[in-house]
DNA sequence: GACCAACGTTAAGTCCTCTTGACGTCAAGT
DNA sequence: ACTTGACGTCAAGAGGACTTAACGTTGGTC
């Protein structure tokens, strides 16, 4: 069975990252428009990011994490550190 | 002038992230197929990531960074830490 | 009431991230 | 010579990340 293609998305699809982004944004007192301006995207993009199951490009995620004084892993990692050791990569 | 839409990409478009991903992969002795299997994407995706100006989704980037025992910022941040303080976000 | 800021939804369009399949090249081993 | 593994390129297709524009709702102020 062929998996659907398209950008890799959150494994659980519950929009948890969007909730964390919104919380971090409010933590530093930014509006959605303010964050949008800070990272040079449209406000619609910020709304989609906060309200939906959305997978931004890594470059946008980095800009957002910096603007929110956080890190990409803190905002988007489905398995926060301490929840389990990284899976050992298979050797060739 | 309307900017072209589509995923946010590397600001300098020089494929530097791909070079870092490849170096990190070789550092731990993985083949492209091995990394592809570890992060559950196709080998073509890994090739595109390493050889082109490519902006993976943040979720794929996190999986790759973990498999390579690194971090998203280390592999994809165009401005590594220490190159400048984060820009202060505008208050509402 | 009017006005404003902030937010959420809808729509249509452009661009790119992924997928599979196939082919070719290179290097090492037998 | 042949075989195998590793890598890079090309093609076509599906899905979605972004864009602008517009509208509606909510809450606060005057």
TrEMBL record, chains A, B:
Pfam families found in the cross-reference section: HTH_3 (PF01381)
Region annotation Disordered: where it falls in the sequence: 1-20
Alphabetically ordered keywords of this record: DNA-binding
GO molecular function: DNA binding
Superkingdom classification of source: Bacteria
Every HTH cro/C1-type domain range: 21-75
Organism: Actinoplanes nipponensis
Database matches in InterPro entries: Cro/C1-type_HTH, Lambda_DNA-bd_dom_sf
Protein name (Swiss-Prot/TrEMBL): HTH cro/C1-type domain-containing protein
UniProt xrefs under SUPFAM superfamilies: lambda repressor-like DNA-binding domains (SSF47413)
């Amino acid at each position: 069975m062929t998996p659907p293609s398209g950008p890799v998305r959150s494994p659980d699809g519950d929009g948890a990252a969007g909730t964390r982004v919104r919380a971090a944004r409010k933590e530093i007192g930014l509006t959605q428009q303010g964050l949008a301006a800070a990272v040079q995207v449209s406000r619609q993009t910020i709304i989609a990011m906060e309200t939906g199951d959305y997978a931004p490009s890594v470059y946008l995620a980095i800009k957002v994490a910096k603007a929110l004084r956080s890190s990409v892993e803190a905002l988007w990692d489905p398995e926060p550190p301490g929840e389990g050791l990284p899976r050992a990569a298979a050797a060739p």
